[in-house]
Amino acid sequence: MTEYIHKKVQSIKFRVMSPKIIKKMSAAKVVTPELYDKEGYPVDGGLMDIRLGVIDPGLTCKTCGSKLKECPGHSGYIELARPVLHIQFITTILNLLRCSCRECGRILASEAEIGAQKRKLKKIIAERGLKEKNTAIKTFLQKVRTVSKCPHCRSRQIPVTLEKPTRYLEKDKRLSPIEIRSRLENVPDNDVELFGIDPAALRPEWMILTILPIPSVSMRPSITLQSGERAEDDLTHKLGDIVRINQRLFENINAGAPEIIIEDLWDLLQYHVTTFFKNDVAQLPPARHRSGEPLKTLSNRIKSKQGRIRHNLAGKRTNYSARTVISPDAMLKINEVGVPSQMARKLTVPERVTSWNIEYLKSLIQKGPGVYPGANYVTRPDGRRKRITDETKEELLEELEPGYTVERHIIDGDVALFNRQPSLHRMSMMCHRVKVLDGKTFRMNVAVCNPYNADFDGDEMNLHIPQTEEARAEAEILMEVQTQLISPAYGLSVMGCVQDAVTGNYILTSGTKMSRHEAISLLYSLGIDDFTKLRKNELDGKEIFSALLPNDFKFNGRNNACIAPGDPCKSCPKWKNNKCQLDARIDIVDGQLMNGVIDSKQLASGSGLLLRNIHKQYGPDMTATILTNLFKLGIKVLLKYGFTVGLSDAELTDDVVAEIKEEIKKAYEEVEEVIATYKSGDLKELPGRTARETLENMILGILNKARNKTGEIVARHAKADNPILTMARCGRGRTLNLAMMTACVGQQSLRGGRISGGFHERSLSCFRKKDLGAAAHGFVKNSFKDGLSPAEFFFGAITGRDSLMDTALRTPRSGYLYRRLSNAMQDLKVEYDQTVRDASKQIIQFNYGEDGIDVSKSEKGTINVQKIVTNVCGE
Amino acid sequence: MAKDDYLDKHELIPKHTKLGERAVKELLATFNISKVQLPKILASDVVVKNLGLKIGDIVKIERKSPTAGKSTYYRVVADG
Questions:
Q1: Is residue A588 part of a domain?
Q2: Which among A260, A393, A395, A504 would be 20 to 30 A from A88, CA to CA?
Q3: Does the reported pTM lie above 0.80?
């Protein structure tokens, strides 16, 4: 049996490889830039030496004796003709040079200072941790740098500067890596510690490369192109350059070439080694391919979005998934998703062959991958997977027996995960049932748009097909749409009726009458066949609505029309003859809607308690069905009723127009009056405001009031069945929208105030300078129907553009904020003792949310004790 | 340090009190934790200074909450 060793990682320490270690772990020394010989066989001592690992099938590794895929690769080394600097250590080396003596190598501090600093560091690391230690080291070195005379050997110090990227200058004389290396060798271990370096893990001189480790061949495999040519990895190219230059440098040194030539080659070697580690050094031109494309060397492999970490380790990709545009289909159930048949032929579910389903699966194999309910692959018990094609079909049918697995096309009722980015909350990814449909888009019920935050202006969504029984069970139990109905953020339904469904139900319950015959055909069109609740021949809309409710359902609530939602009805001025004159009080008794008009307050997502109560009493599945039915009912009613909006609906009679004009004129005069008082200096300032701010406030107030008044006038004079008004009443939009269309658009506000600036002391050049009047600062007195003046139109464009900019700039900001929050809170958990703790069991809250309430089990975050009492004890 | 009166009276500063030794023991026992697992409050916090607390003391904070009425929170005084 395999024995597992369980150990906890306490700490990780990084160190720098010494030349000794590099040599020790190497399998080969690289001496020639050649890669392959004439036969295409790797050259001994070349960069593709087979001691460094094998990447060709058939060859065996000379180091470990294993073949391709088994050999992990072995590293090698190059002996550099002259030492070069390692680009990543440039700043550390600079620090060391500046703070140590150029003669004796000691740190430029007296023994007493050294001792004191060591004790200080020890204390800091014990009490405040690594970060504090590093800042302490920095300040200490900052001080030591300025010492001009070595306290140990009394020699004078010369300031060292760095000429980026890889030249150190002492005054104007250049320090060669050889000199630097010998200086660093002189720094004693004891002093090295003061630089924050553990001398056992990193001797300073190791930061200057005398030999260069070569990554194994497996780390830089070459690719064989279709033409048979070999394309080498970027790293191999770079290493080839290094070896070539190194070779030339060796030869020149041995031949006793002049110093200038040697130095040039040395610099070139430095350049190649630098770009081998990092090809985006600020002051260096990046090394390029012949095509001009920069090489991808070591640090580029790891760094940034396309690097190993974010692309390969953090970025996961998946099979059995699909993505396309979404579109609505109100006839789907709330938990269904319409999948294009083209996708259904690619997305599969593995089904294990048993004696019970073998015939069925055989029929699917017979159809193959091309015909819709078919199958794509067959897996034998030994794990061999075979694609079903016309050639393999017969053979597979022959050998199919229990124990095999068939990957069949998804069919109606299969489990799928449906997701829209950004996945901000758990309702962004829910489990739906597949419904295979014609067409090329995903279809979904409009009610689930809200949790996904989706619309149909070109949104795309993703679909995933769980492949194992466990995954399917989990998805069904934990993620199916019904289970997500109640929002964990505010404890109400996140799904509800939208658009026409709201209006339809409003019209139905606000006095529509129809015959029993009509009612039955209406209800039957949504799939309801229980008509026991429809007892009369002439039916009220409320009775038809009630047909969708369970027989013992009880509910009380108020709708949008209610003028005092918090107060008891008896004290309301609209309460006459034991009835709300606005029909704003909703009473459902024994599943019968007695009073009240149903509107967005009851049906829309995130408002009202109707859906919440149904959920509490009858559970998720029933709520989902009722919601689906309510939705369909609304749409069907509207279809029958014929609900349209036209230009004539925004028409007003002449006297109403006159009244509106008068109202606006009055407001203009009032504004002029206030401006006059302001100019005379008599304006009384509001507390904490200047006179100018007070004026702005007052003008805004006057204009707003005027616009609201025009709205009221319109609402008062509009016909009762005005469709725009109807929509406003049922909760889709506001009366304001109608007022803007018919009476007056109103003030365009920019950043909380009126529009100002743009030109010198005026908003547009068609106004006088310093004009403070309404029209000059973005008040639009015309209605959309009358049409805007050019200036008004421009003001509208200003605010429109501003809000567009605002959303465009805000989205990435809030996205990043969310990311930080979710990362900070990702493993917080409510423990059994009700405390909220993190992974290390640190307490975050002593009682979840300070009140211990699970919001998803509450009504809008609170618990209605009164209701519980009534439910238990009766009225 | 002179006691600042306004810290007790200010509406937006919840009531901070030092937890007695017995109460500390009880607290740690009820939640089955050691002091390091408690949330921290800096010793340089004005309220802590005002109460004259030492590092390692535990403060009981009683806040008003719109949903729970009153909620209690405990913090251990930390260096800083």
A1: yes
A2: A260
A3: no
